[in-house]
């Protein structure tokens, strides 16, 4: 049931790894001493829609834009009231999330939306994702003793290195079997394993550019399983 003081809306998911799930709750009332910017409270109650679109990229200026309709010409104003946005980014009063993020991953936060001349305010439960270099591989890596193997990290369609970016890969936990090596500029694992068994490792990618340096570490171990040398 919808009332003038309690209503719900759902924001659409943002494309390319930025998602927003919105729950709208009216929490205002008539009258009051103003909203702090000289606009004052109005008597109008609105039922707008809200969504966000765009993507954030590690160590690059990014904007996740708010798309708001139904405010009937009133100027929106937003503030974070819970959770947090990525370090380096800020939710502006115009409801856009902007800045240069210094960490990747998903972030949950609550946004309070108000508007000049409108008596109700809205609270959104929102999430955003910052993309960066890929540090995971597709499943376990299978190899035969003495045979060449050549494996690269998963293709990250939501992030690519830009001019001025330097990405360095390194193993931060575990080890590769003898005979295999990782290329520090690509994360490529290649060579011919000289010992059988099961191995596991974690990889990190360090991005450096004019904005600074940030590192990403794989969230799970990648297994390498080396079988016996094939019979000729």
Our count of domains comes out at 2
Number of strand elements:
16
Helix run count: 0
CATH architecture level-2 label of the largest domain: Sandwich
> Portion of residues in helices?
under 10%
Topology as a string of helices (H) and strands (E): EEEEEEEEEEEEEEEE
Arithmetic mean pLDDT: 80
User: Sheet bearing the most strands, described?
Assistant: 5 strands, mixed
Low-confidence stretches: 1-40
Radius of gyration: 24 Å
Overall 3D geometry? Answer: elongated
User: In angstroms, what separates the terminal alpha carbons?
Assistant: 73 Å
- Tell me the name of the CATH homologous superfamily of the largest domain: Immunoglobulins
User: What portion of the residues fall into strands of 2 or more residues?
Assistant: 35-45%
CATH class of the largest domain equals Mainly Beta
Structural class: mainly beta
| CATH topology annotation of the largest domain | Immunoglobulin-like
Short description:
The protein is mostly beta strands and 232 residues long. 0% of the residues lie in helices and 43% in strands. Strands 9, 11, 14, 15 and 16 form a five-stranded mixed sheet that branches. A four-stranded antiparallel sheet has the order 1-3-6-5, with no helix packed on it. A four-stranded mixed sheet has the order 2-8-7-4, with no helix packed on it.
Describe it.
Mean pLDDT is 80; it is low at 1-40. By secondary structure, the chain is an all-beta fold. The strands form four sheets. Strands 9, 11, 14, 15 and 16 form a five-stranded mixed beta sheet that branches. A four-stranded antiparallel beta sheet has the order 1-3-6-5, with no helix packed on it. The protein has two domains: 1-131, Immunoglobulins (Immunoglobulin-like, Sandwich); 141-227, Immunoglobulin-like (Sandwich). The protein has strands at residues 49-53, 56-57, 62-69, 76-83, 89-91, 97-99, 105-115, 122-131, 141-144, 148-151, 166-174, 180-182, 189-192, 197-209, 212-217, 222-227. It contains no helices and 16 strands.
């Amino acid at each position: 049931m919808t009332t003038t003081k309690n209503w719900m809306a759902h924001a659409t998911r943002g494309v390319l790894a930025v998602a927003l799930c919105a729950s709208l709750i009216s929490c205002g009332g008539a009258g009051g001493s103003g909203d702090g910017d000289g606009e004052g409270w109005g008597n109008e109650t609105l039922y707008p829609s809200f969504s966000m679109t765009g993507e954030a990229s590690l160590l690059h200026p990014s904007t996740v834009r708010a798309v708001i309709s139904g405010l009937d010409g009133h100027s929106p104003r937003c503030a974070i009231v819970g959770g947090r946005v990525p370090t380096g980014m800020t939710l502006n009063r115009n409801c856009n999330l902007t800045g240069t993020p210094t960490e990747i991953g998903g972030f949950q936060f609550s946004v309070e939306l108000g508007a000049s001349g409108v008596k109700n305010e809205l609270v959104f439960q929102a999430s955003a994702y910052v993309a960066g270099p890929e540090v995971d591989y597709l499943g376990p890596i299978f190899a035969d003793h003495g045979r060449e193997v050549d494996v690269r990290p998963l293709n990250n369609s939501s992030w690519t290195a830009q001019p001025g970016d330097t990405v360095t890969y390194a193993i931060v936990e575990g080890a590769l079997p003898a005979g295999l090596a990782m290329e520090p500029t690509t994360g490529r694992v290649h060579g011919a394993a000289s010992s059988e068994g099961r191995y596991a490792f974690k990889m990190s990618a360090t991005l450096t550019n004019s904005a600074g340096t940030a590192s990403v570490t794989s969230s799970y171990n990648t297994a390498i399983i080396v079988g016996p040398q094939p019979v000729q």
